[in-house]
Amino acid sequence: MPDFNILITDGLDDVGQSILRTASRLDDKTGISASDLIQAVGVYDALIVRGRTRVTAEVFDAAKKLKVVGRAGVGVDNIDLESAKKHNVTVVNAPVSTTLAVAELTFGLLLAVAREIPRADAAMKKGEWLKKELEGVELNDKTLGIIGYGRIGQEVGKRAAAFGMNVVAYDANIPEHEIKELGGEPVSMQDLYSWSDFISVHTPLNIQTRDLIGALAFSEMKDGVRIVCAARGGIIDETALLAALNSGKVAGAALDVFGNEPPGLTELIEHPRLIATPHIGAQTVEAQSRAAEDIANEVLAALRAEKLRWKVA
After folding, report:
1. Range 99-276 classified under CATH 3.20.20.80
2. Which of 282, 301, 304 is nearest to 72 (CA)?
3. How much of the chain, in percent, has pLDDT values that exceed 90?
4. Which of 157, 164, 232, 298 sits in a 20 to 30 Å window from 98, CA-based?
5. Separation CA 113–CA 119 (nearest Å)
6. Burial category of 286 from C-beta neighbours within 10 Å (exposed 0-12, middle 13-18, buried 19 and up)
7. β-pairing, 68-71 with 90-93?
């Protein structure tokens, strides 16, 4: 007989499901509604989600047997961590599985915003030849400011250095000497804003970072700065970004994440100098396989009271 009952609500790669089925009764209810989740969760020992499902206080209240919530990815802002603690539920994630995928997308967005690649493609598909209008900028010898120099920020920094960029970084949680050892030049946030030709954001979303980049931050940046965010929606104040794009303070921006997802066809999404992608940072075959394997093993370890690698709460 299976030892545990586990519920998946946002899908999981086959490799993860195979691991879980060796020791559990696994139900895949991908796409389940919030109300149906509250009705169903009471019989499960573990819940595995991605970014869509919100594990709220109401879910924890209804989850009488729940021992662990696993996030098949990095960010856990869709999980009420205080409620998890209140109900003695362990929260784990898979923080290393999607590092390369997000770093590579970030660099793709940097290149796209520097050379207006989406606009060029869209024009060609309409039979337009905009060669003279599409004068971009080179990355070589430009300064890239990285806000948040954790795993993903470091990988972006490596790629930027290979392109001849000067990499400066700010991270409130990493000592300056470690940033230097990891290939970045540690700077204050104010210096990062004033020195950077490009800025890439890699912080988690929390109380300290919500609306971190707003009107004041934009006012401290170089004129014509370009900014990329594939971290979490809500770190950049989207109203302030729209104003900065309209004024020309920001020459171009690329976002993979938004405060509300999906954001709909907003004025920001429609802006000609914004490149928008639908939160695809972790959407590679390799990353999804790694995330599924990592979270499956971590959830089973939590259920078996074994040592955990990636306990969040």
Report:
1. no
2. 282
3. 97
4. 164
5. 10
6. exposed
7. parallel
Instruction: Write the DSSP assignment of 257-301 as a string of letters.
Output: --SSSS--S-HHHH-TTEEE--S-TT-SHHHHHHHHHHHHHHHHH
Per-residue CA distances from 309 to 89, 255, 294, 300 (Å): 16, 30, 10, 12
Dihedrals φ, ψ of 270, to 5°? -80, -10
pLDDT tens across 212-236, in order? 999 999 999 999 999 999 999 999 9
Given this model, what pLDDT does residue 176 score? 96
**Assigned CATH topology for domain 4-97+285-303:** Rossmann fold (3.40.50)
Q: Is 211 left (phi over 0), alpha (psi -120 to 50) or beta?
A: left
pTM recorded for the entire structure: 0.90
Amino acid identity, residue 154? Q
Q: Pick from 75, 117, 98: which is nearest to 284 by CA?
A: 98
Sole residue written with tokens 């003279």? 132
Contact 218, 196 (CB under 8 A): no
The segment(s) of the chain belonging to CATH 3.40.50.720 are: 4-97+285-303, 99-276
Q: Give the CA distances from residue 158 to residues 106, 110, 164, 167, 217, in Å, rounded to whole numbers and listed in that order.
A: 12, 14, 10, 9, 25
CA gap 93, 78 in Å, rounded: 12
- Average pLDDT of the chain is 96
Hey, which residues are catalytic here?
Answer: 232, 261, 279
